[in-house]
Each structure stands twice: as C-alpha cells, then as structure tokens.
Amino acid sequence: MAESTVQGQKAVGGVDGGADGKAAPGTAAAKPAGQAKPAGPGLGEVFLQDEPTPQLVSTRRRIVTGSILGVLTVNFLMFLRFFFPRTLFEPKTVFRIGYPADFGFGVDTKFQNQYRIWVVRNAEGLFIIYARCTHLGCTPDWKASENKFKCPCHGSGYDSEGINFEGPAPRPMDRAHVEIDPEGQIVVDTSRLYSWPKGEKSHFGDEGAILKV
Ligand code: FES
Fold it and tell me: What is the pTM of this model?
C-alpha cells in the first residue's frame, strides 16, 4: 500500500516537472501555448479588468475624450454648413453691351449665350428681347432666312420683334430694361422685364423698354 503511494507521487511528479517546479526537458508542460499572456491589454479588456491600472485609466480617458471631441467636431461642421448654402451662381442681370452705334437694323444674337438676350433695332429705336419662350420657357432660335424666332420645344413662332404669331405661345416675348449710362454705353437689366400680356395693354412703349436712338 505504501509502495503504491510512493509510485503514485512519482507519477504525479513526472507530469508536473518534479518537486522543484522545473519542467522536464522535452515536455510541453513548461508553458502551454493557450496560457501565453499578451503584451498589453486589448480594447475589450480595457473595460473588463476589475482594478484599473494607471495605464488603463489613461486609455479610458483618451477614448472618452476622443469620442466627445468627435461629436463636437461633427456638430461644429454641421453648424458651419449653414453659412455656405447650396446656391446657383447665375450670370449677373445688369451689364453693358456697347454703344448704340454698334448695332445696325435687325436682330443681333451675339449676347444670346452669355446673357440670353437679343438686341433688336428697328425704325422706332433699339430694344432688348429676353430670349425665353412665353409658352414653357425654352430658348427659341433666330432663323435669319425666315426672319423669325422659332421655339424648338413646341413650335411657337415669333416675328423679328418677338411678337408671337404661331404655336402655343400665349403672348410676345418679354423685353428687358435698357438705358444709356454716363459714358454713352447701353446698360441692360434683365431683372426688369416689360411684357404684353394677352388681351391687355402692352408695356413695350414704356420708358426703359426701348431706346429712341
Ligand atoms: S416652350 Fe416654346 S413652344 Fe413650348
């Protein structure tokens, strides 16, 4: 019975590496791979350890401070966004186009793309047609060979003075305000339009609608 106990202790000693705690050479019992300790705490361990070390407290502070700063930064950027609204920068509505002597009789289309106007001179004077169809707002084309404006959208036709005579357009095209500045140049303002509503009085003869030059 006593011998059996001694043999049992020897057997246990063989597994543990002996009474002095040293691992036997060639055995894996010295330090199992599954028990290897990592170099530092992982993110999950930061909040799971019971007694925080100074390093752990510092890490937690950095995370909380970073989160607060992130939220404040996003809110500040959203606040700044209100000072930069999404706007369309349209061409200016008041501009010079040259001197009256620069324009002969007929329709001049050279400012169509830049300012969406045509300059027209006839026996009465010089005026500016705003190049917008009065049906649904398309830009008509000047057909010099036919002496008329033709809208490509639904076929409205206007004579050389912008008066509608065919198609669905309900009235003539509008005219822009025009005047001479102190230097003698023509100044156009497309934010001030003169119209001739259907069945109503025409404003094409109003002061500012035509230059008697
Ligand atoms: S928009 Fe010009 S005819 Fe319709």
Answer: 0.62
